[in-house]
Structure formats: C-alpha cells, structure tokens
Design a protein that fits this description.
single chain, alpha+beta, Lipoprotein
Amino acid sequence: MISSAHARTVANLAAASCLALLLGACGGGMSLPSFSSSPPPEAEPGVAPEMPASIRADEIVGRWGLASFQNPADRARTEKMAREQCKNPYVITAGSSGGVIMHLADQATPQELRLKGSPSGKNYIGPAGPTPGEQDREIVSFDGRVMITRFIDKDAATRYGNMVYVRCAPRA
C-alpha cells in the first residue's frame, strides 16, 4: 500500500510529465540558450528594402479623368471615356510626408500612399512596406498624360481591371 504522501508525489510527477509532453508536442518546448555563435537570422526571402520609384509623387499630383478596362483591345476607347470624366475628376494631392493621397482598393477614405520602386524596374503606389505589397498597385505605364495602374491583389485586379488615369487640362 502506498502512503498518501507518496501518492501525492507520484500524482504531481505524473501531472508534470503529462504537461511537459503536451507542451513538447505543441512545439512550445523550452529552448535552452546556445553558447555557440550562430549567424543572425536572415531577412524574409522576397522582401526587398524599399527603393525609390523612377516616377516622382509630384508627377502624378493633379486632376485626372478615370476609367478602367479588362480587355487590352478596349484601351483606346477607355482613355477617351476617362478624358470625358474630367467633368468630375479624380484628384490626387500631395501627401505631408512625400507621398500622394489616393484610395486603396475598397476603401472609402483616401490616405497617403508612397511611390515605390523595385529591383525589376517596376513602379508601385501603395502603403509603406514590402514591394510589391498586397495593397499596392503597379504603374503599368506612365507618360505624363496617361497613367495605367493595376492592383497586385488578384481579387481587386479582377474587380477593378486596368485603371486608366488621363490628366485633365488645367482650369482656365
């Protein structure tokens, strides 16, 4: 027969063993310090430091007619439609920290976005962070008068298509 003091000790040891096994199975095991010199962890692959864009923010500030297309054959017609939207232009203003004030996909309130470059030479508009980020839009083409962008997020890209911005003539 086991005394109650021994039974309590055995029960405590069994509970501690079970707890240690459960924690070990969850990957939450205790990590002991290492005395060997290991290299510092590397940055996540595919995340490059933010690069400046080849298009400056002041180049896209202004009043724009806006339309979109899905089929590349509709580009010329869509540019004409965007030009007609200058009666009610989409206004891109300068941000307080060097970016531009624009809308993100599905956001009612515009916010300051950055123009970001990439090692491949592509330019993006989006919030600070990795390039290209899910909320970014790629500047597909820009000649100073017409800018075409496409969202990186596949769902937003499908819904919005290629966004065509045509610069509106200055007010007389």
